[in-house]
Amino acid sequence: MKTTEYHLLDVFTDRPFTGNPLAVFLDASELATSTMQAMANELNLAETVFLGAPIGSNHYPMRIFTPIHELPFAGHPTVGTAHLLAELNLVNREHGLVLQLPIGELAVGYDRRKATFTTAQPVKVMESTIDRTTAATLLGLEKRQVVSSPMVASCGLPFHLIELADAATLESVEISSASWASAVISSSAEQVYLYVKEQPNNSTLVIRSRMFCMHASICEDPATGSAAAALTGYLASLQPDALQVKIHQGVEMGRPSVIYTAANGEIKSGYVSVGGNAVVVGKGEFYLEHTPKD
Fold this sequence. Notes:
By secondary structure, the chain is an alpha+beta fold. It has two domains: 3-117 and 278-290, Roll (Diaminopimelate Epimerase, Chain A, domain 1); 124-270, Roll (Diaminopimelate Epimerase, Chain A, domain 1), CATH 3.10.310. Helix content is 19%, strand content 38%. It has six helices and 18 strands. It has an 18-stranded mixed beta sheet that branches. Strand 16 (257-263) and strand 17 (272-276) form a beta hairpin. It is globular, with a radius of gyration of 19 Å.
């Protein structure tokens, strides 16, 4: 029976069973789009990656699927895929990697165990349709616990960015399904990224965050590189100086993760670098005779 193999990783972490889980299919050139979507739904992870045959040295086409739809870009699949290709000696760490996504090319570099990419698009920032009062209702908080007016930012995938007062407030969030339906689903961004600025660590800004989105129901993500990029791009737009950020996410879920981002400085204005570690935790295979056809 013909099969196709996938690898399982935990991303934005160096410890198994923390960070954000990811499945990567290395040779998906012959798989139909409907088959990829069905497999992603079957695995039921936040995202699943399907790589095509290399189109050049250290250059791979990549598609990313959630359980319900395809994404043009996502951070933890990019970092996880880069880590896997290096672990399997399918790319040369010294030469870097290019991943071809629907949004454009992502250049990935390696520094020891960490893989870092630069966004294919500059950040776009706009006012959110969610104001502080609506945000407080959405999150089960008091208005005073929402620090400033929410914004929407995107480096390819848009997020409502909502700054909260402190870590205790972040931990106490309880999403209102009714408010989500009225405030988020009808808006220009279907994901909400909550963050708290903690004390700078030397020259690095330390942030605690949580990300909520809608699949079959409202769910939380333990590590979101695309959201980290959007937030960093927004914060960088407020200052001309180089910005380095260390983001802790997934703590409340028991899957702590660490995302490293940077903007300005040596990075072209508007663009953001996103990096982190990953660890391979297993592999499996699908029987292709059971998969749907286009």
